[in-house]
Design a protein that fits this description.
Blueprint lengths: L2 H7 L1 E8 L2 E8 L4 H18 L7 H10 L2 E5 L2 H16 L9 H6 L39 E3 L4 E5 L10 H17 L3 E5 L2 E5 L7 E5 L12 E5 L3 E6 L4 E4 L2 E4 L2 E2 L4 E2 L4 E8 L2 H14 L3 H7 L4 E5 L4 E4 L5
Helix pairs in contact: 2-6, 6-7, 7-8
Length: 322
């Protein structure tokens, strides 16, 4: 191999903090600042469109409309795409991944950026179901009442509904960023936004190596499994991370739409590989919520998955490597 060919085969890595997580970009070829710039643009765009915590975001304006009695508001094409994906997630998961959980999340204390919460260490045992929270009635599902229109893009929300796109918007950003970076690099690209990983273009000879664990911040030495993907996306959802204290109890961010409370298990962490990062994220989040029904649902959709129980027992299916 010539020196030029060897340099072209090198993998470059850029990393920085954004969206309350870590952004990692890997691509083949010589260093090129335009690759990271393309990813930054997509990350910044999704934050401006879909952040629940930014007072100037489009989603904040949509949720304010819901508090005022509902109605329709003009939106960017990006937010329209993000809301449409969230509706699709609810549809394909039979409502397990519900974008109308903004109000329950606020009531449980997730009312500001995660960095500002009283966080629980990821080294602590996974949280038990909240002891003093009692479900008085089944929460009504309202995602079917959201409407997205085009030309120009508009979003209609009913009265009293607050959207949270945390389950899908970051994965959408990963997919978009990987495509944008590939267009710039002209080579294979991997983009990781925390546990949401997307690829575009040809993979390295050995595939894209990914260490699957409860918390992506723990590094390659953490308990877990290293796998390789050649295309598509991989997402990991976990109740062992993004936890905070509220009213003396440990909470996590994956809610059961029926109760509006943190999902009760039996899964601590679920990783799924799919054609896109968005599809992988939808499936991983849905599996946490579905609990014991998740393996059957994942098998029905032919999705390779790795499921970890609360006690650390690992179960794989659908062609996920042992």
């Amino acid at each position: 191999m010539t020196a030029t060919a060897a340099r072209a085969a090198e993998l470059q890595t850029d990393t920085w903090a954004a969206l309350g997580t870590t952004v990692v970009v890997r691509y083949a070829g010589p260093p090129d600042s335009a690759v990271a710039a393309a990813v930054r643009a997509e990350v910044e765009a999704i934050d401006a469109a879909a952040s629940r915590f930014r007072p100037d975001s489009e989603l904040t304006a949509i949720n304010a409309l819901g508090r005022r009695g509902g109605g329709m508001l003009g939106a960017s094409r990006l937010l329209a795409e993000a809301v449409r994906l969230a509706i699709r997630a609810a549809d394909v998961s039979d409502g397990a991944v519900d974008p109308t959980l903004g109000a329950p999340l606020v009531s449980l204390g997730y009312d500001r950026d995660f960095s500002e919460l009283d966080a629980v260490s990821s080294d602590a045992p996974p949280p038990a179901p909240p002891a003093r929270l009692v479900v008085q009635h089944r929460r009504a599902s309202r995602w079917q009442e959201i409407d997205v229109l085009d030309d120009p893009p508009r979003i209609a929300v009913p009265a009293g509904v607050a959207l949270d796109l945390g389950a899908t918007a970051k994965a959408l950003a990963a997919d978009r960023a990987a495509r944008a970076a590939h267009d710039v690099a002209g080579a294979g690209v991997l983009v990781a936004l925390g546990g949401d990983i997307a690829t575009c273009g040809p993979a390295p000879a050995a595939g894209w190596g990914i260490h699957v664990t409860d918390d992506h911040r723990d590094g390659p030495g953490a308990p877990g499994q290293t796998v390789a993907i050649r295309c598509g996306g991989l997402a990991t959802s976990s109740i062992a991370t993004r936890r905070w204290m509220h009213d003396g109890q440990s909470m996590h961010h994956i809610l059961d739409p029926v109760s509006g409370l943190p999902a009760r298990g039996p899964w601590r962490t679920v990783s799924v590989a799919a054609a896109t990062c968005a599809d992988a994220n939808i499936a991983a989040t849905a599996a946490i919520v579905m609990g014991e029904d998740a393996p059957v649902w994942l098998a029905r959709h032919s999705l390779p998955a790795r499921l970890v129980t609360l006690d650390g027992t690992v179960q794989t299916q659908g062609g996920w490597p042992a």
